[in-house]
């Protein structure tokens, strides 16, 4: 295999990875907390596009609980989406680290 073929394969892989990343960034994931108190949607690029908090939680006495639940729920979604992004890219690249090319 010559260098030109290697470069061409790397470029093809880069285009494929970029396409998968773009598609993944637009994909929507459901946000669901314990007991469905917080629900919504987050995109693969980690932007929140929809968020609902059960109105029974709007009470000054439990504000800290709601804030904690919101923080935990969002962080869990970020972890889940990042893991799924990694798995998706690994399928495309067969586990080869192509970050130097991207």
Helix and strand arrangement:
Elements: H1 3-26, E1 28-32, E2 38-43, E3 48-53, H2 63-93
Antiparallel strand pairs: 1-2, 2-3
Describe what you observe in this structure.
With 102 residues, the chain is of the alpha+beta class. Helices cover 54% and strands 17% of the residues. The protein has helices at residues 3-26, 63-93; strands spanning 28-32, 38-43, 48-53. Helix 1 (3-26) packs antiparallel against helix 2 (63-93). The longest helix is centred in the C-terminal third of the chain and has 31 residues, at 63-93. The radius of gyration is 19 Å and the shape is rod-shaped. The mean pLDDT is 88.
Short key terms for the protein model shown above:
3 strands, 3-stranded antiparallel β-sheet, single chain, 2 helices, alpha+beta, 102 residues
Produce a short descriptive summary:
Helix content is 54%, strand content 17%. It has helices at residues 3-26, 63-93, and strands spanning 28-32, 38-43, 48-53. The two termini are 22 Å apart.
Alpha carbon gap, first and last residue: 22 Å
Largest sheet: 3 strands, antiparallel
Number of separate helices? 2
Query: Can you tell me the residue ranges where pLDDT is under 50 for at least 5 consecutive residues?
Result: none
Structural class: alpha+beta
Number of strands: 3
Rg on CA atoms, Å: 19 Å
Mean pLDDT across every amino acid position: 88
């Amino acid at each position: 295999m010559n260098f030109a073929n290697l470069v061409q394969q790397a470029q093809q892989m880069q285009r494929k990875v970029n396409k998968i990343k773009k598609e993944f960034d637009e994909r929507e994931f459901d946000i669901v907390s314990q007991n469905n108190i917080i629900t919504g949607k987050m995109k693969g690029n980690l932007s929140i596009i929809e968020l609902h908090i059960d109105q029974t939680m709007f009470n000054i006495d439990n504000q800290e609980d709601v804030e904690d639940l919101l923080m935990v729920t969002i962080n869990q979604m970020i972890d889940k989406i990042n893991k799924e992004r990694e798995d998706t890219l690994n399928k495309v690249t067969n586990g080869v680290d192509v970050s130097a090319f991207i």
